[in-house]
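Submission checklist for the structure archive. All mandatory fields must be present; incomplete records are returned to the submitter.

[x] Identifier: Arylsulfatase G
[x] Organism: Melanocharis versteri
[x] Residue count: 527
[x] Sequence attached
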Amino acid sequence: SPRAVLVLALALVGLWAPCVVSRQPNFIVILADDVGWGDLGANWAETKETPHLDQLAAEGTRFVDFHSAASTCSPSRASLLTGRLGVRNGVTHNFAISSLGGLPLNETTLAEVLREAGYSTGAIGKWHLGHHGRHHPNSRGFDYYFGIPYSHDMGCTDTPGYDLPPCPPCPRRGTAARVARKDCYTEVALPLFENATIVQQPVELGSLATRYAEEAARFIQRASDSGRPFFLYLALAHMHVPLSPPLPPAPGRGIYGASLSEMDALVGRIRALADSLGKGSTLLWFTGDNGPWAQKCELAGRLGPFVGAWQRQRGGSSAKQTTWEGGHRVPALAYWPGRVPAGRTSHALLSILDIFPTLVALAGAALPPSRRFDGLDVSPVLFGWSDVGHKVLLHPNSGAAGKVGEIEALRLAQYKAFYTTGGAMACDGSTGLAERHQPPLIFNLDRDIQEQEPLDVTSREYQAVLPAISRAYAQALQDIAADNVSVADYSQDPAAIPCCNAQHVGCRCHGATLDPHVEKRTPRLCL
């Protein structure tokens, strides 16, 4: 009857109500660096240093099958901000301090879409998507930027922190002896930017977490005062080396544990800022760019159960830079009181790629045209209405084996297929040789989360799943080939290196104030 139809319609509207937002929500995306899946106590009982993150998990939703879009810095960040894999957006490996290019300019960032939709946009922390000219964050949709343009081990500092091998401090005089160390940047000091201005060079690493929290608070306050919704992209230095915990670590915690506690406290401060705006007004999403950097030994994070045992038996690491689970399965939490269910654990197959289309949808904006996206709008999973994510998820080569950026591993339901395997450098210095697999290695992750024993190619299970994997792989490659694909410029020029004062050794800013907000600061434009 018409009455029954009306009642049913009203009931459906009531079910849909959590997604209908009376005003555009604020978004805070916190991206940790080189963090392990097991670095959250909510994920791994052995971890005791993350009470604030564990509280977020208890009051929000924890995603346990969540993946970065690559296993190294620049490609993962490019995918977060475009919703597209590196084979589409052009960013397949890391940019250098002297890079002229960056994320291709014809790629549309999440910040550009949200700013067009009325958002105030800010990026705080590590960028690593090009810093020269129009590749700077201020030219990629961010109204405000404060941070380091690449990884904080890509420049010397006066207090180098903890790294393996340890790096020397910046030279202080033009006549100082330059000490060459492998994997250490000794010629140019690490710069700290506010928008296009270097405000400190070298960076004081010990106070960086505090500075990031202060700048986040200022950005949020300015956005709140303006009456506009905001998007804050907070890309932490934690847990990438060098580690610079604020205090000597307590016995038994170690340098990594102390740094993890510092990161956890920083996330707690940001959560408090979000809550101060009124609970329910801000979605906070925490995740990581890739897995731990195993060659850093005790300064690397915890993999949890994702140890890539098959690879480790053959040498090398199965974490960062690899396509093993430890390289790309990362912790992920969503917190949005009243909208994201509290205390929920989702097993949906999700990716950092999904952040772009999901936030665009929640903001009421439209995806950029004339391109295809690897990410999904996972609002139904976010709101607890569904626990279904990707049917197929692609894992690009990220430095350990195969041509960087190419797709030679993929996930189909509980099955993980490898057409190429290889191990990155491990703590003991070993690496795993690249191996091609035709037919592919296939693991059933439901039974073998450690990736220890691939299915026997003669087994009924292998023979049953292989055709579906082959079809999914072929369809994915065809889709990429038919797409509007970008190409990044990886050329380099020493003139592109950020330098506050080329007359001073290491580009040191002599006399530059440590506080970019005092009135007498001397601007140093560097682009």
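[x] Structure attached
Curator remark: The longest strand covers residues 432-444. The CA atoms of residues 177 and 410 lie 49 Å apart.
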